[in-house]
Amino acid sequence: MNSESPQSIGVSFAGNVGEKIPLMNRRRQMFDYFTRMFGNSNAGSEETSKDGYVEFGNIGEATSGRTLGPFAGVFAPVCLSMFSAMLFLRVGFVVGNAGLIETLFQFAIAYTIIVFTVMSVCAISTNGAVEGGGAYFMISRTLGPELGGSIGTLFFLANIVSSALCLTGCVEGLIDNFGESGYLMPKDSYILNDGHWWRFTYTSSLNFLNLLICLIGATLFAKTTVIIFAIVVICLLSSVISFFLKSPLQIEVPAANTFVNQTNTTVLLNYTGFSLTTFSENLGPRFGNDYTSNNIAVTFSTVFGVLFCGVTGILAGANMSGNLKNPSYSIPRGTLGGVLFTFISYISLSILVAATCSRDLLQENYVFLMPINIWPPFTSIGILTATFSASLSCLIGSSRVLEALAKDCIYGRLLQFVNYGVWRSNPIAAVLFSWLLVQMILFIGSLNLIAQLNSILFLLAYVALNLTCLGLDLTSAPNFRPSFKYFSAWTCSFGLMGSVIMMFVINPFYASTSFGLCLLLILLLHFFSPCEASEWGSISQALIFHQVRKYLLLLDPRKNHIKFWRPQMLLMVANPRSSCPTITFINDLKKSGLFVLGHVKVDKAETNLDYTDKTISSWLTLVDHVKVKAFVELTVANSVREGLHHLIRLSGIGAMKPNTVVMGFYDNKVPLDYFTRLDSVYKTSLFQGITTNDEKFPLRLPNEEKNLSTSEFVSMICDIFQMHKNICICRHFDLYNKTDIVKNIKYKYIDVWPVNFFGPSMNDAYDTSSLFMLQLSCIIKMIAVYKKHTLRVHLLNTIDIQSQRVQLKQLLSTLRIKATIHEVQEWSQIDLTTLDSDKNTYISRVNKLIKNQCAETAICFVYLPMPKELRGSDLQNVSYLNSLTDLTNNLPPTVLVHGVSAVTSTTL
Questions:
Q1: Burial class (CB in 10 A: 0-12, 13-18, 19+), 252
Q2: Which of 127, 273, 589, 713 could be 248's S-S partner, Cβ–Cβ 3.0 to 4.6 Å?
Q3: Pairing of β 749-753 and β 790-796
Q4: How far, in Å, are 102, 157, 164, 514, 553 from residue 453 at the CA level?
Q5: Could you tell me what percent of the chain has a pLDDT over 90?
Q6: Rounded (10°) CA dihedral 616, 621, 626, 631
Q7: Over the stretch 121-130, which tens digit does the pLDDT of each residue have?
Q8: CB proximity list for 519: less than 8 A, separation 6 or greater
Q9: Are 331 and 122 in contact (CB under 8 A)?
């Protein structure tokens, strides 16, 4: 035993290898090592806060690039983004058209959706390490690349539109201050010209200034966020105080309102101060026209669209997740605090406006807060700082989302330029591309029109966030353990439904288009994205598991009815290299039933306990390559027969268990390698190793001994029968070529031979095996490839052939099977008495008879008789297999069929 004490053992997690580190320091370094390894780059020590959040604080200096806390990193950006253009520019528009009561109602709706969505954001963000990309990162790592990528793309566009919205609001404030009749300009003088293209020039200039700041780096903006927030709060307080200090006055209509000013007479609007009359007049709705949008009529949905764009900034903090010291700690506190602060601000301002400003003032002058301020520049500064900072925040956020999309290779090479255009951790290319898109949105010009589009896109992001959290909660995934506990499936559902409903209330066309675009992106990403869901995990798998488990428990085998019978196949595969055609055929034959590929490795089980884990991946790749809908079951046993017992008993689950076992035929044919044959549709290099030993599914050599003997193969047939499973044995499927069957016109028939050739009887066509054959042939006829083929049931010429024909025709009619009955005249030439005296000659003649009828046959179904002795001797087993071999020699692809239970129904 080592004589050194635990305290003196050298550890190489930090410092020099072999350096002796005190026990507490070493434990701390070990914790750092593992937390870094599992994705928390800030982790150093684990603490529990008073509120129950698990905090990972930093020991020593913060990780490079992650320097922001809850206030500067989340609270201030959230408040600034939510205030944006709404606070100083559109509160009057909302109250003036909707009235105070409806305004409060709309704020209640908006904040209900917001609060429930914030709860979902908090739950997701406290369930693990949140990296750069914010809401996109949360959604994609939960919903998977298809949904996550599509929603992330629309969220990127939402930030683009929001940036354009805020720039438009900023320029509106500039014009009202420094344009014609500007409140900060002497009468009949101005600095800024007004007009559509002048405003576009100003917004473009501000957008270019945003670009320059972003190119310098987001850190510059982050450092000034708190200062900007303080300025906006001071300006807001000045406006609130002004309502109490300012005396009643008359205010001119702004020059921008050309629809009122076109009369060339000065129109004055009343600020009444606190007045019960004014307050009562402003309680109810009275929708007017919007003078900034060609005087279009204002409606409830228009107002809500503008109002909601003022509360869409809840993800501004989450967007900065890559710069937060501890996202799981900062995002919940900062976001909830910001939501509460902005709610109080909006409600207070709405009540004060309704109590002091006439309806005409609110509808005809959107910048009325400036002339009634105790010092008008306060309002001007508030408008410019709130809108400009929000536009800059959205541009930064959109570029970070685009960078995250590019890093995840969601769109493959399409966004590779973003990854190449990074300088000192600043995504230059993403910033430039985002700036260009903002520039395009600025052509719209009207703030109120942009606001509706902005609200729709953000609501769609909220739908995805609530859906994400709801899915995680419903699936009861053990690893979903957020430290934020104030959420439930109900809050997620309310947030989800509220977001969807309000999207269609605001603008049904925009809402439908956004959902359609989202669906299109999902489909495109599903089929063309190189990103693998397995790298992140997808909630779809958890939801599928949850629902499948629930329905499997409801699937009661005691309630099975023959009317709803379907084949559930267990295909025994010796080697998939030589079995591809059989696998494809059985996939067609399963008719939406269970399909299991079973394989037995003959070896000692105790030395191969990890066999399934080591090989299952290759088998699943095989399933994808062959394009079949199948499960895989592998086992290790001392013999193939013993392994067959394992698979029959254990394959499937609940009522979904195989009822039919399919095997290949036992013969001496050299197995073909369909993975390497030049003419094979299954040709691939997927399973090719660097050396021969690395090759997957190596084929048995021609002189190599089989793992299965003749007697054991026959015993397996008997075992399947005794275990009450239907039996299918496929032979000559090396000749089966589905493509050739489609193209080659010589293939016209699917043949069924409903007669036990080892002991013919008048009732063979009506027993369980023959009915099972008819069912299988009917199923294969439903496949598109075989629809042009004729299903042909062979009737052997007997003494009472006419009566047999009528009965068989009646049976096919009753079973609703469209088939032709073909009388085989040559049967009368075969002497049945030779079946016992000269069996080989008899079987040879039967084989020739069948072969003569199969020149144009694609698939042949033949009755499989059971051995006379189910536990016969080796000699009897060999004789039985030889008879089957002689019976099916030189036939087209043939399925020997034996049924053990009824599979057809004539009842409704």
A1: middle
A2: 273
A3: parallel
A4: 22, 10, 11, 9, 46
A5: 43
A6: 40
A7: 888 888 876 6
A8: 150
A9: yes
